[in-house]
Design a protein that fits this description.
This protein is of the alpha+beta class and 114 residues long. It contains 2 helices and 2 strands; from the N terminus they run ββαα. It has one domain. A hairpin with a 2-residue loop joins strand 1 and strand 2.
Length: 114
């Protein structure tokens, strides 16, 4: 099912942009505010040409996204390993019959509980 197209006006660095997107208005406004904040952080005085500060902000945001993806992949890889160990334990328990052995609970971050 196609999402409805919304028209939303956002302002970045004092310039208004009318956007047509299938994203929700609130999401588009939040993204525009984020971009505006990043551009303001990079050029608080407004002395850098708009195209240059836009590229700098884009690279900064892309770097943040890449770091988030990397940390997510590491977490996923760790979770995959733990799920593999759990699967092996379950297979062993099912093939030998359940004997009431319980594993100590572990928090999601993988640290041992006291």
């Amino acid at each position: 099912m196609a999402h409805p197209i919304n028209e939303t006006t956002v302002t970045i660095r004092g310039t208004s942009y009318q956007l047509r997107t299938d994203l929700g208005r609130d999401a588009v406004r939040e993204m525009a505010q984020y971009v505006d904040r990043r551009m303001q952080e990079l050029d608080p005085t407004g002395s850098i040409p708009p195209v240059k500060v836009s590229v700098l902000a884009s690279l900064t945001i892309a770097g943040e996204l890449i770091e988030e993806r990397k940390s997510g992949l590491i977490l996923t890889a760790g979770m995959e390993e733990r799920l593999g160990r759990i699967h092996a334990l379950l297979d062993a328990a099912l093939s030998e019959g359940y004997h009431g052995v319980e594993a100590a609970p572990r928090p999601v971050d993988g640290r041992q509980t006291p």
